[in-house]
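ok so dumb question maybe but i'm new to this and my supervisor (M.) told me to 'just get the structure for Putative HrcT' and walked off. so i did the thing. is this what she meant?? sequence i used:
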Amino acid sequence: MDRRGVAGTAAPGIRNDGQHLMTAQAFGPYFDLLLSIALGMARIYPVAYLVPVFCFQHLRGLPRHAVVFALGMLPAPGIRQALIDAQVNWLSLAGLMFKELVLGFLLGVLLAMPFWLYESVGALLDNQRGALIGGQLNPALGGDTTPLGLLFKEMTILLLVTTLGIGTLTQLIWD
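this is what came out, is it supposed to look like this??
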């Protein structure tokens, strides 16, 4: 019976006298949600690392993880419901995590190919005009990025963001 004299059940993690219980049952829904976010992040990490639109070459450390966590929260409710309905075990979860990582890697490679193509065309044009002649004579001079290749890649990113938008890109990742 609770304080009002009515027999009933309290919310999970709260005793009938109002005291909080620190039990595993109280954290069950949060654990399921955290697990579904981790499964969502498993697909988005390789994609965000490979596709230049997400600018992971500039983001380091905690901001990078925050962006992936925020993008992983988008499909988390659907993943959570599917996990609850399927009642999967830990071995199945490990296989599912591996599948999501591989799928994210394949999607990342496919989505990054147009950017690599335009960067390669810019590098070819820079090579034809002699902008990288010092790097060919002395390879210790620096990186392989070319000015025109970087410009073409940045223009491709700009065109993608202005015409289709980031929403279309993330929808393509999750569908």
